[in-house]
Design a protein that fits this description.
homodimer; about 270 residues; alpha/beta; 434 Repressor (Amino-terminal Domain); 9 helices; about 35% helix; DNA-binding
DNA sequence: TTGTACGCGTTATCAT
DNA sequence: ATGATAACGCGTACAA
């Protein structure tokens, strides 16, 4: 059978409640009993039951993550970042693919709420307004809540700076990493004699472009689809994940996270 | 406050236990009371509490998934397949990255066990022997347990067949999708006048190869890194996920899954 | 500083 | 077919 707190209490000859206090690090506990309890814990190989704790404390050390499509090229990197931070804090996450279907999305939300998750991460659009628990939005700025996204403006200015005096071509994927970046390029994609043109689509075979020209490919760190010789504009999926986690944790723990949009900077790196 | 079963029971003027029976679809219940209860449920917007259910039933409708690295190129597709099937069955999953560290792996396992997960999926090597709950291994055949993997032999014979009379070059990624496939190619990579050579590494720039030659690139469906004109040998990550889920579900529900290795076939597709 | 006792929301085992 | 009640394992207000 399972080792419970009562077993530990009996072994350490103290009360159940005392064991609970020791485990939760209650300061008002004598070093003597604390040691006795820890000894018994190790002796019996006791492991606290997260389910029971959850029922009693009305929380679960779990957060829910909503994604339109888990197999999107950057999802893995994002989740890796998220997991890295959450696991360090003893928080697990549950993933749900919504496929862009509002009904499915709400159903998934209710299922997770019934599990008493402590927070939500919404990567598939606006958070449901009646979630009732801390939520952060990822990928698009949101008014009146906490959101984290990639700074597209920074990408635009980095490209503009790179373009000084020459022509550069920027390739995004089929669903662009930096949507609407066109509009952010100053002076109608021209400045200082340079020019930037952006293509949302597949990378065409390299044609005979002048050696002065520069090719930039948008990608994530782990995506190997960048041809050699091209500049890379990294979409910081991993960092987006770690930042999401930190923000959500702070929000859950009520550490005074003021609503607002936080951004991560994309990184432009040369082929050399 | 939260709507509980007691609230529903009171509203429907029946006992808590009856509500539970109705909700779980107990056959020996009168249509009359059943209707009363459902009415009250909808009236009050009652949603069962998964935590409480877990405490009482000693299960959680949750499984744990261990991955060495979540950001690996195929992880997203695998997880998409897994989620697709699990969510249809009301099961959620919790993801843990182990980074190949045995200690971290065991810690993660114990954390999940304390959550009373119903099963494990091990993508990062042999299952821990003392997991104590249904486990399946993914990616490598395992003796004495349930495992699912990609049929490398099938990949080898498809390549051999393709090579009849010509020379083909197969490129895998840095960490090969089909490890050890070399050894499975008959006749020392030659047969019927054709030949197969395999490169574990990055795709080199296309040099002047004869038009008779064939290039094959190993990839997953969603990976855009396949140059046009090349054959594709798909590593069926998504299918691996759906199959994993089905096998695990059957094992959990005790549906007589006999230990053994199940395989998924890779798909070779032409560039046309 | 520690013990008592109740609550958390369900399921399951008795009765009836 | 349904009601009463005891688990399930832990947190915590309250008492000591």
């Amino acid at each position: 059978m399972r080792v419970t707190m009562s077993d530990v209490a009996r072994a350490a000859q103290v009360n159940k409640a005392t064991v609970s206090r020791v485990l939760r690090g209650d300061p008002r506990i004598s070093p003597a009993t604390s040691e006795k309890v820890w000894a018994a814990v190790k002796e019996l190989g006791y492991r606290p039951d997260a389910i029971a704790r959850g029922l009693s404390s009305s929380s679960s050390d779990t957060v829910g993550v909503f994604l339109r499509d888990i197999s999107s090229p950057w999802a893995g990197e994002y989740l890796a970042g998220l997991e890295r931070v959450l696991s360090r804090h003893g928080i697990e996450f549950i993933l749900r693919a919504t496929g862009g279907d509002p009904q499915q999305r709400r159903n998934a939300m209710f299922r997770l709420l019934s599990r008493r998750v402590d927070g939500f991460v919404w990567l598939d659009g606006e958070p449901e307004p009646d979630a009732g628990i801390p939520s952060i939005a990822v990928g698009r700025t949101r008014a009146g809540g906490v959101s984290v996204s990639v700074d597209i403006g920074s990408a635009a200015s980095q490209l503009t700076r790179l373009a000084e005096g020459r022509k550069i071509e920027v390739f995004q994927g089929e669903n662009p990493f930096f949507p609407g970046i066109q509009a952010l390029l100053p002076g109608d994609t021209k400045r200082g004699g340079g020019s930037v043109s952006i293509f949302d689509g597949l990378l065409p075979p390299r044609n005979g472009s002048s050696p002065e020209d520069i090719t930039v490919v948008c990608a994530t760190r782990r995506c190997p689809a960048v041809p050699s010789g091209a500049w890379k504009l990294y979409w910081p999926a991993f960092e987006l994940g770690t930042l999401s986690a930190r923000l959500l944790l702070n929000t859950i723990q009520g550490k005074g996270v003021r609503p607002g949009a936080v951004t991560v900077l994309p990184v432009l790196s040369s082929p050399f």
